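Hey L., structure's done. Input below.
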Amino acid sequence: MPREIDPISEAPPCQDGMPQFIPVAEAIAILLKPHAEVVIHDLRTQTIAYIANNISRRDVGGSSLADLKDIGLLGADVVGPYRKTNFDGRQLKSITAVLRNGAGEPYGLLCINFDIAPIEAARDALNLLAAFQGAGAQPSALFNADWQETVNAAIADFLGERGLAASALAKEDHADLVGRLEQEGYFSIRNLVPYLARVLGISRATVYKHLREARQKKLQATEN
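Output:
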């Protein structure tokens, strides 16, 4: 029965000498598919022995000289990460494991070439969003027009100071909140009373009652 070729690599069998590294190359390529290829180089012949998920369009048996030039000295067991440029201009982030024999002499390389173009595109998009100039203060015209947002912010400040949720406010808290909103001039906003009653879960009559009391206290303080 003819040997089946793994569809991810679509490459001929590995050259003699390093077939034990094929499963490693395929596992890495499957995990990082479709963004990475894994290339096994045979330093004894200075040729490519195997390619998993071929994105560089090179051939098994082709020269390894270009990769050796990128890597340089083989004193370390792991070289990189370092940058490479693919045939189509895409930038690759690469790392190489040096394969050594029992005497510690290098006889092969396992290179992972990762296409970082999608990551860089995502980074640029995030940087663009983060640098958006309108992300600061809200335009005053919009802020003034959306009075409900203004009131909500004031209520949120009040709740934050007391460490309470709106549903947990007691009668005294409602009175204090209405007093603060009156002190800060919020009741000049039309339709505030019905909106505040709905938000706090109390009747309009209760809001008006607290408002009268707040205004009486304000008047008394002015007279004194």
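Strands lie at 36-42, 47-52, 78-85, 91-100, 106-115. Helices lie at 22-32, 65-71, 117-130, 140-145, 147-162, 171-183, 192-200, 204-223.

-- N.
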